[in-house]
Design brief:
Low-confidence stretches: none
Helix content: 25-40%
CATH topology of the largest domain: Rossmann fold
Radius of gyration: 21 Å
Order of helices and strands: EHEHEHEHEHHEHEHEHEHEEH
Strand order of the largest sheet: 7-6-8-9-10-11
Number of domains: 2
Number of strands: 11
Largest sheet: 6 strands, parallel
CATH architecture of the largest domain: 3-Layer(aba) Sandwich
Distance between the termini: 21 Å
């Protein structure tokens, strides 16, 4: 069976999968120097592993023409996959929900802690030999709003409560008015929701202005859940106590972007879901579904 891993990150995953799948399967990685459509036309595959590569209608058409049998996302997010096009070609799409929920929840907590302790300013103080500055803020007793209380959000809720935080949640059934009311009383907000038409730009200028001036904002969802221009404007006027980002509006991002050098902004290189344990869980799901595909059995975690 031929498999193609398309991600620009996670080099450990294809190597792990190759070992776990064995010699009866051939797994290669996408040569990103040429379009994915051309890659698929030149060498058809049975299973496509998109990761963070966009799989649009053209890609699916090319892959389906070559005999594609499964799109297996080695993560939870499927916003980059044209599910309607997959259905039109009769190609099932599966994901790996929950495989990295612990990893992402722990990273979200890390970003909250780094923002609370003013990490960029603390690093600058260390470099300057300044002792005891800047003063941070404690998370114990603070109110955290988790937007997207799914698997990852639920894991974060558990961990935040263990720190003594008061945790509230907002989900798909939360109205705009209810969300704004929750934001108004939040000391921190963490975004862990899927990207969809309903969540794109969810934290816009009004939502950010509704947050208290000292509030912390952490995003481990997708970059576009926050309105970038509104975020920059809020920081420029001294609003928000800190911003922690593991996801961005464009990936790869521009390291020279002045936003990332802001003294109240902390960044991680989209690494929240990257742990050896998460990779093992991803491999379990992928290998299991490949085996099910070969045997003609029902696939796990099918979403289209």
């Amino acid at each position: 069976m031929q498999l193609l891993f398309c991600g620009s990150g996670w080099p450990e995953v294809p190597a792990l999968l190759a070992r776990r799948l064995g010699p009866d399967h051939h797994l290669r990685t996408w040569d990103r120097r040429r379009p994915l459509v051309d890659e698929l036309a030149a060498a058809p595959v049975d299973v496509l592993l998109p990761s963070n590569a966009p799989v649009d209608a053209a890609v699916l058409a090319a892959a389906a023409a070559g005999g594609l049998r499964l799109v297996q996302q080695p993560a939870a997010g499927t916003d980059g996959i044209d599910l309607a096009a997959a259905r039109a070609h009769g190609v099932p799409v599966c994901n790996a929900p929950g495989a990295n929920q612990v990893a992402v929840a722990e990273a979200a907590l890390l970003l909250l802690l780094l923002c609370a302790r003013r990490w960029p300013e603390a690093r600058a103080a260390f470099a300057a030999g300044v002792i005891g500055s800047p003063p941070g803020t404690e998370l114990a007793g603070a109110t955290l709003l988790v937007v997207g209380p799914g698997r990852t959000g639920g894991a974060l809720v558990e961990r935040a409560r263990a720190l003594g935080m008061v945790v509230r949640t907002a989900g798909s059934r939360t109205t705009r008015a209810e969300l704004l009311a929750e934001l108004a009383r939040a000391d921190a907000v963490c975004l862990s929701c899927p990207l969809s038409p309903a969540t794109r730009g969810l934290l816009d200028a009004r939502a950010l202005a509704t947050l208290p001036a000292h509030a912390l904002v952490v995003n481990v969802a997708r970059g576009a859940v926050i309105d970038r221009d509104a975020l920059v404007a809020a920081l420029d006027r001294g609003h928000l106590g800190g911003v922690g980002l593991d996801v961005f509006w464009e990936e790869p991002w521009d390291p020279a972007d002045p936003l990332f050098a802001h003294p109240r902004v902390v960044t991680l290189p989209h690494v929240a879901g990257s742990t050896t344990q998460a990779f093992d869980r991803i491999a379990d799901i992928v290998v299991d579904n490949v085996g099910r595909l070969q045997r003609g059995e029902a696939l796990r975690h099918r979403i289209a």
